[in-house]
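Appendix B. Extra example for self-study. Work through it before the problem class; the solution is given directly after the inputs so you can check yourself.
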Amino acid sequence: MTDDREATSDETLCRRIAARDDAAFDVLVARYQARAYRVAWSLLRNAEDARDVSQEAFIRVWEAAERFRGDARFSTWFYRILVNVCLDHKRRGRWWTRLVARDADRDAEESLVERQPAPGPDPGDQASEAQTMMRLWNAVHQLSAQQRAAVILYAQEHLSTAEIADVLRVAEPTVRVHLHRAVAALRKELAP
Amino acid sequence: MTRERPDDLTAAERDLLARATAGSPAPEPRWGEYRAELRARLEARRSIGARLRRWWARPAPIALSFGLATALLLFTLHPVERRPDFAALDEAVLGARLDLLEHYHVVERLDLLENFEVIRRLDDVPSREG
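Solution. Structure tokens for the complete assembly:
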């Protein structure tokens, strides 16, 4: 009897993709599309780039599926591909792209404030909280690329420090240092 | 899903990180469009890859690549010599023959005779004895 869970595990799907199974690829994309896009968005902060880069990560999965050895979880392998594509994309960014991105960030900041829920009984507190979150969000963006990736994988994707170390190909203590430095930077941002 | 997280962070620090990453939620794309676009990109990549493999398997591209590689190798081993700088060469010759200046009056006369085509017809000039 075939175990259904085994049949549809990420690792099994990846093996089927290596054998050029289109249906398996579609299932895997549907399973990972939201988190791929979310991570790319958090790292790049541009909707078009996030779309482009997350799709590129899936294409790389298709191309490299036969090299997935299965000694790590598929999700770890996928996050590694995704984060690498994002960091490559950032490195490749030209000066004019950065200028445009800066404008887009400004727009995003404004739209975030606009996106906040309608003022309730204490509008002052809510506006203040939105501003604080925006300051923290911007402070994350000031971190180094690897620190930022560590923070996003930890706090947003709920990966353990060991998994993050595996994704970023660094030692686990390095990930802890990244997280502590990020906390220190965020506290500094909140200091009056 | 609850996971063991040996990260030395306090609950307050975890909360701080969570708030920082929740600052700007990702805009939600239309997933149907997203997957269709991805499928089109994948097909394009596959067809480009297949076309390139087919193109490189043909004899002409192989010969072309071989020719280019050979030309590059030859160019690296024997770089094209620069054209000589004639002005510099002239100066060098003149510099080596400064003694001519000591007999400038003779050179001047020879120049004059050359202008009258005397030197070219030197054999026709009757000798004083003759």
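Self-check: The first helix of chain B runs from residue 11 to 21. If your reasoning did not lead you there, revisit section 3.
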